[in-house]
Write a sequence for this structure.
């Protein structure tokens, strides 16, 4: 017994639990996070950065159109002009999710991506006289903690939402943005990214997803009509989808549940087109039900190899029969692009529609790498090609499957 006690004491002594400089710095944020009011995040972050010799601290948040990074106002923060995402060091850090260092006359300007999970919140910018690996490691972890705090505290304030806005937002768009999950999710096995347009006037389009164990669930919807009527219809559709998904029923049953919910609430004259999907991220087995949407595009090695056609199913709310579930096995690296009809049916008065063929041409010529960058670049390229015309809502949602496993992330030994 005495020997066992001595062994336990020896093991305890060998474990170094002392608090180093970096841990103390990050620990202050962690210890205070639960009770800190949102407006004090900025001055505390600025104080932490100053402790390691930093200055000229800015927190830059992505605007709703994903064109610029707008500065968050706050005590002790430097508030300058918005930074363009396409042509700035801050934009590069944002798009590539990596730290960018820019030498200047008075030191090194550092831009760190603010990642909430894998969703991009914005960028933390600051200046140091010099930078070494210890600085980089500490700042990277500080940026991760700041991103988590911004997302958590956004539920308690309007300040972060206001900073992201560059024009007036409609009430319908306000509702739709409040429904959305994070625009991006990136894991070793699967990545997703979505975008809605027009950002400040979206009404009937929406999407939702969830990763439950090895199954990625996804729905893209387009509610009929415009304005608040469409937003209300979309709200019920997404609510019904989440309810059915969390009940863990099959895709056909999920469609029937949504159909009943829409019909009971709005009657026979209202409907929602939708596409619901399930992807086994371990095997690449894809299943989907298409209720009135254009067929998704299967992309392999940057080429569209086929449209994922499926038997016709009535839009949700019309009381259709039990739908047939379509199936496809993906190859590692395959991407699937979902989109609503507002994208390909857009046209000037008297002119031809944008069309699926032109969409495919743009998909195959986009130079971006990650799903976030591809979806954003594709949306902006299509908007330019349509000369900014958006008479209907449009949604793009991209899924990339890589397979394999993520178990190594749960091990401290790797």
């Amino acid at each position: 017994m005495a020997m066992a006690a001595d062994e336990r004491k020896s093991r305890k002594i060998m474990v170094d639990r002392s608090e180093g400089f970096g841990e103390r710095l990050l620990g202050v944020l962690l210890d205070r996070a639960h009770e800190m009011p949102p407006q004090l995040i900025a001055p505390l972050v600025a104080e932490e950065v100053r402790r390691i010799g930093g200055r000229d601290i800015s927190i830059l948040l992505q605007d709703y159109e994903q064109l610029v990074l707008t500065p968050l106002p706050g005590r002790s923060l430097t508030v300058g002009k918005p930074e363009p995402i396409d042509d700035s060091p801050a934009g590069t850090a944002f798009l590539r999710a990596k730290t960018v260092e820019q030498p200047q006359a008075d030191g090194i300007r550092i831009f760190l991506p603010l990642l909430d999970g894998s969703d991009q919140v914005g960028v933390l910018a600051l200046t140091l006289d010099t930078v070494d690996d210890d600085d980089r490691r500490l700042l990277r972890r500080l940026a991760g903690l700041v991103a988590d705090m911004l997302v958590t505290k956004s539920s308690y304030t309007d300040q972060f939402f206001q900073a992201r806005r560059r024009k007036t937002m409609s009430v319908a768009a306000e509702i739709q943005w409040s429904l959305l999950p994070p625009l991006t999710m990136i894991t070793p096995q699967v990545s997703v990214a979505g975008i809605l347009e027009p950002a400040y006037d979206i009404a009937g389009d929406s999407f939702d997803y969830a990763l439950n164990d090895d199954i990625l669930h996804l729905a893209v919807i387009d509610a009929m009509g415009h304005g608040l009527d469409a937003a209300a219809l979309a709200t019920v559709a997404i609510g019904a989808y989440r309810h059915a998904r969390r009940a863990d029923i099959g895709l056909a049953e999920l469609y029937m549940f949504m159909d009943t919910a829409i019909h009971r609430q709005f009657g026979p004259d209202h409907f929602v087109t939708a596409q619901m999907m399930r992807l086994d991220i371990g095997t690449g087995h894809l299943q989907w039900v298409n209720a009135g949407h254009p067929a998704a595009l299967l992309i392999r090695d940057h080429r569209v190899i086929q449209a994922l056609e499926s038997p016709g199913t009535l839009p949700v709310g019309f009381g259709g029969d039990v739908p047939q579930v379509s199936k496809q096995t993906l190859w590692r690296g395959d991407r699937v692009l979902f989109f609503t009809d507002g994208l390909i049916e857009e046209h000037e008065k008297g002119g031809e529609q944008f069309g699926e063929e032109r969409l495919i041409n743009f998909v195959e010529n986009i130079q971006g790498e990650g799903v976030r960058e591809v979806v954003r670049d594709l949306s902006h390229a299509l908007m330019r090609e349509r000369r900014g015309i958006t008479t209907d809502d449009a949604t793009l949602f991209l899924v990339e499957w890589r397979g394999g496993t993520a178990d190594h992330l749960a091990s401290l030994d790797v």
